[in-house]
Design brief:
The complex is a heterodimer of chains A (249) and B (464). Chain A has six helices and 14 strands. By secondary structure, chain A is an alpha/beta fold. The longest helix of chain A has 15 residues, at 37-51. Chain B is an alpha+beta fold and 464 residues long. Chain B folds into four domains: 4-91, Uridine Diphospho-n-acetylenolpyruvylglucosamine Reductase, domain 2 (2-Layer Sandwich), CATH 3.30.43; 98-213, 2-Layer Sandwich (Uridine Diphospho-n-acetylenolpyruvylglucosamine Reductase, domain 3), CATH 3.30.465.10; 221-329, 2-Layer Sandwich (Alpha-Beta Plaits); 336-433, 2-Layer Sandwich (Alpha-Beta Plaits), CATH 3.30.70. Chain B is 35% helix and 20% strand. In chain B, helix 8 runs antiparallel to helix 10 (289-303) and helix 13 (349-363) packs antiparallel against helix 14. The model of chain B has no long low-confidence stretch (mean pLDDT 93). Classes of the chains: A alpha/beta (249), B alpha+beta (464). Strand 13 (186-187) of chain A pairs antiparallel with strand 13 of chain B.
């Protein structure tokens, strides 16, 4: 059973991004880039399924500029078998990504498509859902547990106030949440071996998908600075301020 | 408590009474650093908020012969900030402001109590970088860092704290306020007193503010951990890696050391298997360094010098890998480790390590010896753990016998008996290992000039 995993190259989780002076975007020059952490969890889950003998080939796909190759190589070093790079320097919106993923999934005849619940750069949380809708197949989003059976998959979802388990017929889309697993460290011998694994280059045009953006970014701004706190002399003064100034009492 | 009462009244003539503490909890807490060999015995803790208050306090202390112990983040490992003989602790917790930042000079002037991490974060917010870094960054303070010439994990690339000090404001033992060097790059006008204060451990004056240089941020940093079966091969790994990569740090630790960190359950083992030793290193990743790193790894693997390795794929993984090294000190604290912070020249490390390893194994087979350190600087932290059933005093006496042998070996290698932790109280009686009699006599002379009444951190560095 073939698994397709989608990975995105994003600004590293620990980087504090700065907004460009002209407010057009965040400045990512000379900034550490890594695999989207939720996608890393998706790769880890696929590898674990394979190691448990439940999944066959793992194909990993990424869309974006040349450097996405590094992200794909990381996924290969973690244990994926083969990579597909849909190379483009264009800005990709979730709908365009979902359409491209649909094309790749159909070409690969993947039974299970695993991807992060969202990317930490744009926080859209749309691609997995759009993909399932476009393919007209089931979706198990925000997965904290994935049980693969014959022809179906049980996905435990993290929802408000608890957990929900859904059973999906394959093929299906699963988007991963934080508690699904803890991705492994990548061993150097595996990084070397990953260099020899196949990485196919594609372009959006190969799939006949229109990736023209439908949104325009008007402005990117930093969150408002917090104003400094003040010290009060007594509990009475605190209560008075909460009542009259903050108006929370 | 009448004496303490009258002391508090005396102190109140220099520092507002609200910022003088004499409760047991404060006296315990501020009476010691990270060492656990001495019982805290402070008579008061004061919290000045300005240089003027510090000067007034020192003048009072000089005329009344009140001994003062300057206190920063109290993360020291040599007892330099311990009050053990009824001293008044001068805490810089309330002097933690950033006074001035100059983007053209690329300097920042901060008060002594600013936390190291706050300085690093401030530099980053300005698009610059403050490179001196160590595990205690979240509690150590700038004043203490200067007073102890702190080192840490990035000395290999950026040097010690001393190298970043462009100016010092301090109060000498007579209460005089000095402005030393004042941020200048070039200032060849006689003795550079600023450098006397770096590493003076509070014995020459109280540092109230520091001007520090900032620098260009490095390229994103990559972190790798390698498994090394033989202690003697670690320097081979260092030589290969240093030749191939723009290193910013190169550290080593033993499986036993990592075991204490893993036992806490907050980080994972980096490999499935284990090896007796590990190295962790960090390099700037600007162009194609990962390729170079892999090539080096392949060569070392072929030589049989390393057996496995991991490369962090994100800053989160890099931080977790660093914890394997950085959390060692904290993880072994419950075992009251006897700390040896020794250094030899980098070229001497292999020979020194071989002899030291043989010596410890032969003389002290029953003690658990934890090895780690900044081996790229020739600096080893040898921690001997107290067997749980032993009393602290018995253990300390036994360790002092270990010291005799270790230091005799060190003397043969012309090494340092305290590479970066300073002398403080714990290493004071061994000063002669690393400094000649003539040097120590000159140090006493200097101390007498700056602190004629002997009120500043008495008994530290030099015996009384």
């Amino acid at each position: 059973m073939k698994v397709l995993v989608a990975v995105k190259r994003v600004v590293d989780y620990n980087v504090k991004v700065r907004v460009k002076a002209d407010g057009s975007d965040v400045d990512i020059a000379n900034v550490k880039m890594s695999m989207n952490p939720f996608d890393e969890i998706a790769v880890e889950e696929a590898v674990r399924l394979k190691e448990a003998g439940k999944a066959g080939e793992i194909v990993v796909v990424s869309m974006g500029p040349k450097q996405c190759e590094e992200t794909l190589r990381t996924a290969l070093a973690m244990g994926a078998d083969r990579a597909v790079h849909v190379e483009t320097d264009a800005v990709l919106e979730p709908l365009a990504v979902a359409k491209l993923l649909k094309a790749v999934a159909e070409e690969e005849q993947a039974q299970l498509i695993v991807l992060g619940k969202q990317a930490i750069d744009d926080d859209c949380n749309q691609t997995g859902q759009m993909l399932a809708a476009l393919m007209n197949i089931g979706q198990g989003t925000f997965a904290s547990k994935v049980d693969l059976a014959d022809g179906s998959v049980n996905v435990t979802r993290e929802i408000d106030g608890g957990l929900e388990t859904v059973s999906l017929k394959l093929p299906a889309v699963v988007t991963t949440d934080l508690r699904l697993n803890e991705p492994r460290y990548v061993k150097l011998p595996n990084i070397m071996a990953a260099k020899k694994k196949p990485l196919a280059k594609k372009a959006p045009a190969d799939f006949g998908v229109d990736i023209t953006p439908r949104l325009t970014t008007l402005k990117v701004a930093e969150p408002a600075k917090r104003s400094a706190g003040i010290k009060v002399a007594s509990a009475a003064e605190l209560v008075a301020k909460l009542k009259n100034e903050a108006k929370v009492l | 408590m009448t004496t303490s009462h009258s002391l508090a009244e005396q102190l109140a003539t220099a520092i507002p009474a609200a910022r003088i503490a004499t409760d047991d909890d404060s006296l315990q807490r501020y009476g010691r650093d990270w060492t656990r060999y001495t019982e805290p015995c402070a008579s008061a803790v004061v919290f000045p908020t300005s240089t003027e208050e510090v000067a007034a306090l020192v003048k009072l202390a000089a005329s009344e012969k009140i001994a003062l112990v300057p206190s920063g983040g109290r993360t020291g490992l040599s007892g330099g900030a311990c009050a053990t003989q009824g001293e008044v602790v001068v805490s810089f917790d309330r002097m933690n402001r950033i006074r001035d930042f100059n983007p053209i000079d690329r300097t920042v002037t901060v008060e002594a109590g600013l936390i190291t991490e706050a300085l690093q974060n401030f530099a980053t917010e300005q698009g610059l970088y403050f490179p001196v870094d160590f595990a205690s960054r979240g509690s150590s303070q700038v004043g203490g860092n200067v007073a102890t010439n702190a080192g840490g994990i990035k000395v290999l690339r950026w040097g010690m704290f001393r190298d970043w000090v462009a100016g010092i404001e301090c109060v000498t033992g007579t209460g005089e306020v000095l402005q030393l060097n004042q941020g200048l790059v070039k200032n060849n006008t006689g003795y550079d007193l600023r450098h006397l204060f770096v590493g003076s451990e509070g014995t020459l004056g109280l540092i109230t503010a520091v001007t520090l240089r900032l620098t260009q941020p490095p390229a994103p940093l990559a972190v790798m951990v390698l498994a090394v079966p033989e202690l003697s091969d670690i320097m081979t790994v260092f030589a290969s890696v240093r030749a191939a990569l723009p290193l910013t740090a190169f550290e080593f630790f033993s499986e036993a050391a990592m075991g204490h960190v893993l036992a806490r359950g907050h980080v994972r083992r980096p490999f499935d298997g284990s090896a007796p030793y590990y190295v962790i290193f960090e390099y700037e990743h600007a162009h194609n360094e990962d390729e170079a790193a892999l090539t080096v790894f392949e060569q070392l693997l072929e030589q049989g010098v390393v057996v496995d390795g991991v490369l962090a794929q994100s800053d989160s993984q890099a931080r977790d890998l660093w914890r394997l090294r950085e959390d060692i000190s904290e993880s072994i604290t419950p075992r009251t480790p006897y700390k040896n912070d020794i250094a030899v020249k980098v070229s001497q490390v292999p020979a020194f390590v071989a002899e030291l390893d043989a010596l410890l194994a032969e003389q002290y087979p029953d003690f658990e010896v934890v090895w780690f350190g900044h081996i790229g600087d020739g600096n080893l932290h040898i921690n001997i753990l107290r067997p749980e059933e032993w009393e602290i005093d018995r253990f300390r006496v036994a360790c002092e016998r270990v010291n005799e042998l270790v230091f005799a070996l060190l003397a043969r290698f012309n090494g340092s008996m305290s590479a970066e932790h300073g002398v403080g109280l714990l290493k004071r009686d061994y000063l002669h290992i690393s400094r000649s009699e003539a040097e120590i006599a000159l140090m006493r002379g200097i101390k007498a000039v700056f602190d004629p009444q002997g009120i500043l951190n008495p008994g530290k560095v030099l015996g009384q």
